[in-house]
Amino acid sequence: MNLNNIFSELTEALDKLDQDREEILKISRYIIRDCSVAIKHIHRREFNQYQEKIDKVQVTHEKLVSLVNKNIGVFFKYLKTPEQEYAEAVSFFSIIKKKDLPLPKVLKIYPLNYALGLADVVGELRRYVLDNIRNSQIDDLNEILESMDEIYTYLFSLDYPSGVTQDLRHKTDQARNIIEKTRGDISISLQMNSLRECIETNVQDNNTNKK
What we know:
The protein has 211 residues and is mostly helical. The chain folds into two domains: 15-109, Methane Monooxygenase Hydroxylase, Chain G, domain 1, CATH 1.20.58.2140; 114-211, Up-down Bundle (Methane Monooxygenase Hydroxylase, Chain G, domain 1), CATH 1.20.58.2140. The chain has nine helices and no strands. The protein has helices at 3-43, 47-68, 72-75, 80-96, 104-107, 111-134, 141-156, 162-165, 168-210. The longest helix is centred in the C-terminal third of the chain and has 43 residues, at 168-210. The radius of gyration is 24 Å and the shape is elongated.
């Protein structure tokens, strides 16, 4: 029997797979971390810092894809989370800056992972809306809500079995709940702002009449 030669070859192949897997996991962590930081920069309106971080993510992502493609049948699943985070960060920035969303093929992101990232961006948009409300910046609230609605509408249209779309339906349902809460918050904020303006106008009119 030549089991020694067989298992020597198997061990060599598995060692290489294990090394590549460890490298993929390390790179994935870098991408997830950098995307999280990039999103924080958007919330802080530190757009130059965002761009620096996302440029780094782009290069790291290309390296990740290259490694995954060496044995895509084994490693493809490791693209899901980092690509999801990458799509979320880029989409969030595009919506805030009122730019067209980049296509998945432009970012070299698997389309389903891109869709999962879009579902998650709804939560970041809600956080952005709430920050604006706290800072009395209400000019773009309805426009952001429209973007959230549009994303949900398109996500909901992807009517495929869960075996194809994985957890996209669950994320879409979550997005719907987030949007409805955000709609209520925006409505109350705008009503309060109108009431405040009316009170201020009445006060000014009364002061003018007294003079």
